[in-house]
Design goal:
- By secondary structure, the protein is mostly beta strands.
- The protein has 3 helices and 16 strands.
- The protein has one domain: Outer membrane phospholipase (ompla), Chain C.
- It is about 10% helix and about 55% strand.
- The longest helix is centred in the N-terminal third of the chain and has 20 residues, at about 1-20.
Length: about 325
């Protein structure tokens, strides 16, 4: 697994250098009607995606189910000639109910991102960039069907990244490459039980041979490493918008070369002003998250049964999305 992600890491660097060497290739085609907006811009929307399956005397069999995802997005942008500031918040929560089974969580996201970008000079497409991101979840997570012991909670984990680096892109809000040789990653595990077990890579509690706790588990873990990201956003067809972002991170001190991968691809397909279909894929790999492990009951030493593995989530749904800014614009023009 380590070799595979080193290959991904190398391909990312190669493609970035190749694109930067040919500046004309790293651009999004500018249409004649494109407008550069200076000053403040905001966007706020809420949505509900639903999926329902029902069977009555269906001879092939099946299980009745209904699921839904509630989402809310808000973004603020301030742009000047040589610099801009972007900040956004993304919230999602989803549940699934199957016949004869309890309610299960399917989606749980609290995500905040902020960045300041300053153009290095007026004759190239290099930008100085400072980025801050934070993400966690709303409620407890379980390894279903076991609901007796939570494997994650609010702020357990929570991840914060802060980095300084350089960004490259002609139309940087649509297509860009970012590299930071100094990125601070902070992992929060603000739950005593999970922290004492050493969940999500924090140092676990230490016990003596009689089972008495000598030191509590750490609730915070900090790392410093390299972060590379690539982002692309474009309307590939009239009513279909593509958003994709790839992030690669490796820590200098702890297991250098084990690359954490976060790659998200979303297709937003607009049916009309309020109805939208979404097809999404989210792939993750984090070396600190083990698939299966046990703890020595006396020493609390972790015994890894199955190591880190690729995590993958796929979403397909149709629902209602309300864009408050467009509603306000319609009222002003009417």
């Amino acid at each position: 697994m380590k070799d595979i992600f080193w290959l991904v890491f190398a391909l990312f660097l190669f493609s970035s250098n190749n694109l930067i060497a040919h500046t004309d290739t790293l651009s999004v085609n500018t249409k004649e009607g494109d407008t550069v907006y200076l000053g403040w811009r905001t966007k706020k929307e809420v949505g509900l995606l639903l999926n329902q399956v029902s069977f009555t005397n269906w001879n092939s069999g099946g299980t009745n189910s209904i699921s839904g995802i509630v989402s809310a997005k808000s973004s603020t942008k301030f742009k000047q000639e040589k610099w801009f500031w972007n900040s956004d918040i993304n919230l999602k929560y989803g549940l699934n109910k199957q016949q004869d089974n309890g309610v299960k969580k399917t989606e749980d996201v609290i995500e905040l991102n902020s960045r300041i970008v300053i153009q290095a000079d007026s004759i190239n497409n290099w930008f100085y960039s400072a980025r801050l991101s934070f993400n966690t979840q709303f409620s407890n997570g379980y390894k279903y069907p076991d609901k007796d012991e939570a494997i994650s909670r609010f702020l357990a984990p929570g991840y914060m990244f802060f980095g300084l680096g350089m960004e490259y892109g002609r139309k940087i809000e649509k297509l860009s490459f970012y590299g930071s040789p100094f990125t601070l990653k902070t992992t929060f595990v603000m739950d005593d039980d999970l922290a004492n077990r050493g969940a999500f890579g924090v140092n676990p509690a230490i016990y003596d041979m009689d089972g008495n706790m000598l030191r509590e588990g750490n609730t915070i873990k900090q790392e410093v490493g390299i972060l590379l990201t690539s982002k692309y956003e474009e309307n590939i067809f009239e009513n279909i918008k593509l958003n994709t972002q790839l992030s690669l991170y490796t820590d200098y001190v702890n297991s250098f070369g084990n690359v954490d991968v976060d790659w998200e691809v979303n297709f937003d397909m607009k049916v009309n002003k309020f109805v939208k279909a979404t097809l999404g894929s989210h792939l993750r790999y984090d070396n600190d998250i083990k698939v299966a492990s046990e703890r020595n009951e006396i020493t609390n030493e972790e015994i890894v049964i199955e190591g880190s593995s690729v995590q993958w989530k796929q979403i397909l749904g149709v629902g209602i999305v309300i864009d408050f800014d467009k509603i306000s614009e319609s009222k002003e023009t009417s």
